[in-house]
Design brief:
Blueprint lengths: L1 E12 L2 E10 L2 E7 L6 E14 L1 E6 L12 H10 L2 E6 L11 H10 L7 E4 L1 E2 L8 H6 L5 E4 L13 H13 L4 E4 L17 H7 L2 H18 L3 E3 L8 H9 L4 E5 L1 H5 L21 H12 L5 E2 L8 H4 L19 H10 L5 H15 L17 E11 L18 E11 L2 E5 L2 E2 L9
Parallel strand pairs: 1-4, 5-6, 6-7, 8-9, 9-10, 10-11, 11-12, 12-13
Antiparallel strand pairs: 1-2, 2-3, 4-14, 14-15, 15-16, 16-17
Amino acid sequence: MFDIAFRGNRVLTPEGLKSAVVLVKNGIIEEVLPYNAEINAQTITELGESVLMAGLIDPHVHINEPGRTNWEGFDTATKAALAGGLTTLIDMPLNSSPVTTNVASLEAKRMATQNQLHTNCGFWGGLVPGNTADIEGLIENGVIGFKAFLTHSGIDEFPNVTEEDLRKAMPVIARHQLPLLVHCELSTENNYPPESHPESYSAYLASRPKEWEDKAIELMIRLCEEFGCRTHIVHLSSSNSVEPIKKAKEKGLPLTVETAQHYLYFKAENIPDRGTQYKCAPPIREKSNNDQLWQALKDGIIDFVATDHSPAPPELKLLEEGNFKKAWGGISSIQFALPILWTAARDRGFQLTDIADWLSEKPAKLIGKADSLGKIQKGYTADLLVWNPEKDFEVTETLILHKHKITPYLHEKLYGLVEQTYLKGKKVFENGNIVSLNSGEIV
């Protein structure tokens, strides 16, 4: 007898959308059968027209614990994730304190998760100047890969690397066949002209030009080819870099790319002055640029979409002051990753299968879990999500489970209501309520 059976008319499988029954035992998908198959299960969940898909995977999340738990923390981040249908998060090595750049700091982070993981979570190690000797220890202790910045990270404890640093570290990372994630901006000094107005979004946009990204990505493509190191470009915002990335992929380089929901949903023309809730780095660019990102996503040049959930307390976002130059750069959105992307994608003619590809299957490949997560397929972990693509809702402060209610999506009307989330076949979220706490594991 199976533990649970899911029967629905819209089951997202690797073969596409189908009417099917998904059978789960001991947390594993045992069979995917035709809709009318005879089944023997302790629980049968009838899904009707709701969509069943593999749980979402977000490999770009700043949880900020230990040390900056007043910014977010494992408890609030993983609760918000469950409410959004996310079943696996990978936490960035900043903005916690200590930053995750050696084994001791990784252990401190693991200790901080105790009794606070409501969804699954893994960790990136940090690559900073001088810690090449720490790479193998971090790998032995389970990091998924490494993250580096080519410009100031915003956190002094996590300085940016240089080409010289990368040349030392990339051969070590390549030997273990793990990915190196890179924030690609090569910045110049005095990027804010003295006469610019700090409340102006156009001034902020001009202060972080496309060229910063393009030069950094050019560098990483060159090093990727030289060392054969798996290289992943995070939160691509410059459409100028799409063609070089395409050519690098055509050469067979181990290069992957993500963009973020905010670069696809918003456009610079509509961002108000003083609207520091929109500040992120790289910045949200113009409609014409973002249209090209959509095309690159359609063409598979951009592999998937990740939130770069980067929360901060109100005093750092400077909402009342409206100072883009001084405000913390980061957008909170993890709870709404799916409806944000679907709302924008549906208007452009994309299908539900695209969403599964961008938010489940492709991220699973990056984190080395392509054989166990990200698909509804026999033998895969039964981390699952039930949602209704036709239902809409308004983002309100009451709904938000992030520690702080600051988000540019506040009061946006979004399509795609998450109804249920399952970890290993166990229901953990249903209709607005978390029904099982501490169900997550370290991956």
